[in-house]
Amino acid sequence: MKVFQKHIRLKPYPRGFHLITDIIVDEFPEIRQIKKGMLQVFIQHSSAGLTINENADPTVRKDFETFVNDLVPEDYRKFIHTYEGSDDMPAHIKSSLFGASIQVPVTNGKMSMGIWQGIYLCEFRDHGGSRNLVLTLFGE
């Protein structure tokens, strides 16, 4: 069994849902060494998340943004944790809803996602800054 781990820092992204699949593939060429295995991607932040979804039509990502903003509005008057701005507490809730990690099977040196699937960085802050990912790959 082989195990690889790498930390990568993403550039700052604006608020929204952003495809980062190609960044992961480019930054983690060790994927090509795994015939059968698993890749875990973990984000080290509590105001951003990760998910896998549609990779072709950008309107899907826009609709995600619209829906989650309606689901967890910034003007919710009962929030107490507002020290870092009106987008802070909603970002924490959205991060918990989406989650901080994903797992993707790896087969013959490639992520085994469907043809229309991609990995999204879910940036929930207006100015979230750079985001750190921990990539852990294991398999044979």
UniProtKB/TrEMBL annotation:
InterPro entries: UPF0047_YjbQ-like, YjbQ-like_sf. Pfam families: YjbQ. Belongs to the UPF0047 family. This is Secondary thiamine-phosphate synthase enzyme. It comes from Mongoliibacter ruber.
